[in-house]
Amino acid sequence: xxxxxxxxxxxxxxxxxxxxxxxxxxxxxxxxxxxxxxxxxxxxxxxxxxxxxxxxxxxxxxxxxxxxxxxxxxxxxxxxxxxxxxxxxxxxxxxxxxxxxxxxxxxxxxxxxxxxxxxxxxxxxxxxxxxxxxxxxxxxxxxxxxxxxxxxxxxxxxxxxxxxxxxxxxxxxxxxxxxxxxxxxxxxxxxxxxxxxxxxxxxxxxxxxxxxxxxxxxxxxxxxxxxxxxxxxxxxxxxxxxxxxxxxxxxxxxxxxxxxxxxxxxxxxxxxxxxxxxxxxxxxxxxxxxxxxxxxxxxxxxxxxxxxxxxxxxxxxxxxxxxxxxxxxxxxxxxxxxxxxxxxxxxxxxxxxxxxxxxxxxxxxxxxxxxxxxxxxxxxxxxxxxxxxxxxxxxxxxx
Length: 399
Description:
single chain; four-stranded parallel sheet
């Protein structure tokens, strides 16, 4: 690999043992993928936060690294396993919560912002078109590449953290413009009515393409919230890190204009495919005893929608809307938090139904409007799911 003088100095220990170790690992990673050089990054987003998924080994890794190095660029943290402030109210164990807080403190000691969200682009970590970044949460990676047009590979939590420490990442795959072309075209002959349908499209396509780059021809623009849900579904049922939507995403014209675009495989998607995948994501005919929205974390407009539905109503079952603490603060300012809490619901920060130990809270069925959550919850939490729209799920648990 071709390294700059600054990068050579880092790997030789001129900027400390921690940065030297990080550079050595990243250069080795780059060599595996035939990267010709390293590239500076403008921001990072680190996954591998929940104690449920990383355990004591992950905690030890973070604490040890914090003794050797720190971060100077914008770097945000993925959701944790509990709501850091309200874990007791939600029923999580003190033992788990303490371990989780220790992990977050370990990341903070390195300089990672303890934002605990999978939607960093909603709370200020919003890269520009063509910015090189190192993000690791799958839905955030897909959104950054596709909707924003920044450039990141689907980093592992450790590699994103190392990149944040040295401000560099190997230049390969999605960082190279020519590698961002479309691989397969989907003609979607369907007028989407809700978020469950757009998620079902992503779930279906992800299974077909795996890690290829799909190009969508859609009827109209689904909007930012639905593009977020589409990418999350693509990244969970497959390993998609970048998609294009004709006339909507910033690189769709580039994807359409490359030499062999007209020769790409074309898949037709009609209403029967959407309907079958919506129905197929539900695993039970029971009513949810918990409805969980916000996977990826809810935007303020999604929270506003829930508040409008709940105004003057009461819930018979539990409702969580998962989001960042920053977005919860805005919801409080706008009066949405009061409306939701008066109805018996909760805005839950820092975590979500996928990475939290929800299986320990005596729930049996979770209602979700996220295809990503519907895909993960049965495996990661061993619980049944009901997959439907936000409105229909809430209607199921209204008194």
